[in-house]
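Recap from last week: sequence in, structure out.
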Amino acid sequence: MAPVMPRGIGAPPSMLVKICAFKQVSSTHTNSATGLNPLSCSKPTDHFSLYASEQAKAEQEEPDTVSCSLQSTEGPTSHIMIEADRELSAMVQDIWDKDVNRLKPGTDYRISLQGKAGPVNADMNDDMNDDNDGAGYPLFSFVDERIFKKESFLAFISLLDNYESDTGEPEIVTPEEEAENHKFLDCMLRTPTMKIAHKYLVEKQLSPEGLPEFKKQLYRIWFELYARRGASKPDSSGFEHVFVGETRGGRTVIGFHNWIQLYLQEKLGHIDYKGYSVNANSPQPDENKHILALQFSWKNGIKPKGSIFVGVSPEFEFALYTLCFLVSPNERVKVFFSIYEVDIVCHHYNQKHIGTTYPVLVKYQNEQKKQKN
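Predicted structure tokens:
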């Protein structure tokens, strides 16, 4: 049976522009996972220097990627919600409430925001121009690593060393690594968060009801290898790009939107946190909140501006991003949950694999109405 479009997704482009403040162009591609026709959009201009602009341009130029970026909304139109956003937000709230493995900021972990990151430059040397470094100390000052002994964290962390970071370097999946992929998916399918996501996707006829078939769908989306621009052989996967991170040309970090990988790499001395990122339209970062925009260097490459959830479980992100990838034909969606109003984008690589996926905090909602952060 053909997938059924969730209510409200068919809203006219003009309404979508008001919601997300994006310039949109039509796309002839069809998402094979949903049977829907996504839209593409141009990246908004940010306040970073030429180097950041070049990175954005390079990402847009990938010929077989429908590439979008996020921009905070402001003014009265930011409160407009189509029905699909309301419905998805309710699902995300349920997933958030069922995330029993989420860490509590200030208790289970502590971060040190320090200063605002400075602009980056295309001609930076290997020291990444310390004059623009807004942080003299690591981002994480403490993490209670007992959480890493829990099943979902163990399964997730076991995958982080399975990849070559340089794009263009072919990925070779060993039988042991494939077994780890399956073990991780089996673990995810047992979690309350993924059960909620699966139930919703089945109701929308976007995923098969049987767990073996659903697992195959998840494997294709997240772990099936594909070749990036200029690569002759498969050199990337959705899981690697979103959660592990990749490097391009030896100087650019792409993907890498996971706090666990960030913490572990920083602990090993491979991450240099440069400070938080903020612009005129975004709220000030807060060490006691679960979303952070930041700048950092990794393996001699720079991530001019990234955005991550902090302290959430692997099963929360995996369920959330899978939902957004399959539900949203426009590759971006606004969700409201807990005290957060967030824009999330899922790039569709070749229309069947998940690409860059990350949250951008639009604003904090009325905290008086929420008992949990």
